[in-house]
Write a structure and sequence with these properties.
Elements: E1 4-15, E2 18-29, E3 33-37, H1 44-51, E4 59-64, E5 67-68, H2 74-80, E6 82-84, H3 97-106, H4 113-117, H5 121-140, H6 156-168, E7 174-178, H7 186-201, E8 205-209, H8 213-219, E9 222-227, E10 230-235, H9 237-241, H10 244-254
Parallel strand pairs: 3-8, 3-9, 6-7, 7-8
Antiparallel strand pairs: 1-2, 1-4, 4-5, 9-10
The structure holds adenosine-5'-triphosphate and magnesium ion (MG).
Adenosine-5'-triphosphate (ATP) binds near residues 15, 38, 42, 45 and 46.
Length: about 260
């Protein structure tokens, strides 16, 4: 039987008068790649923000395995095993690729501020563990050769990959990608598709928002469609492709 790891139950997000997300329910099972699509402003990123604790939903419930995470802060949710990337790349510009991944690796180490200031043995051990973890993730994600380059000087496709690497370094179970192919050319998108499948095969579960239909239709096991904050369709790629509501709301706009 499928093992559900993330459940979103009738989640709504209101901003003053605007209902950005309207009673959305979905679940993600272990090992799946689940897609969320929908026109600009449909509420996709807002839903991700609610799931990852950047905002607290106005109504509804979000459950990760057996834990209700609805009211939790972002750092608590990350430490439970959910990691994300952002629609606009958020790498630290003055830092190398390695340092950026070490930031992720540090998120589950626990030497407190005092041991950092005093540079205690525990702090040195944590530094070493973060370094080793980061090097391992760079290798896994094919970024080892770029480890001493400044993150923001890397080609665009590699910056996106580095963001994913930093998320993986937090040792999550589920990864949420917000438009990972945004701004990529066709070749970069093809490389990304292959990379996401590889990440899934490493044992991660993936929930992704994406506008690139080739990517979504090729790699997602199931797709959810949002329009004006509400879920208007869900199903396997073939069902979504031929769903008249989806064509009207989304694909129709592109055609
Ligand atoms: N913090 C906020 N305060 C007020 N309104 C917001 C806030 N965040 C998002 N919105 C609004 O909520 C709606 C949904 O926005 P959201 O960014 O979730 O859309 P999206 O589906 O991710 O779109 P895109 O494909 O363009 O990224 C939009 O109308 C947006 O202006
Ligand atoms: Mg968005």
């Amino acid at each position: 039987m499928a093992e559900t790891i993330l459940t979103v139950e009738k989640v709504s997000q209101h901003f003053d008068g605007l209902i950005a997300v309207n009673e959305v329910s979905l679940h993600v099972d272990k090992g799946e790649i689940v897609g969320i699509i929908g026109p600009n402003g449909a509420g996709k990123t807002t839903l991700f923000n609610a799931i990852t604790g950047l905002t607290t939903p106005t109504y509804g419930r979000i459950v990760y395995r057996d834990t209700d995470i609805t009211q939790m802060k972002a750092y608590q949710i990350t430490s439970l095993g959910l990691a994300r990337t952002f629609q606009n790349i958020r790498l630290c510009s003055g830092m190398t690729a390695l340092d950026n991944v070490m930031v992720g690796a540090h998120s589950h180490l626990h030497s407190g501020i005092f041991s950092q200031i005093l540079r205690t043995k525990k702090h040195r051990e944590d530094e070493k563990a973060a370094y080793e973890k980061a090097m391992q993730v760079l290798e896994l994600t094919g970024l080892t050769a770029y480890r001493y380059e400044y993150a923001t000087s890397l080609p665009y496709g590699l910056q996106r990959r580095l963001e994913i690497a930093r998320a993986i370094a937090t040792e999550p179970e589920i990864l949420l990608f917000d438009e990972p192919a945004a701004g990529m050319n066709e070749q970069e998108t093809s490389d990304l598709m292959e990379f996401i499948l590889k990440v899934r095969d490493m044992g991660y579960t993936i929930l992704l928002i994406e506008h690139d239909m080739r990517l979504v239709m090729n790699i997602c096991d199931r797709i959810h469609v949002l329009d004006h904050g509400a879920l208007i369709a869900q199903g396997v790629p073939a069902e979504i492709r031929s769903n008249p509501d989806v064509i009207a709301a989304y694909l129709g706009k592109e055609a």
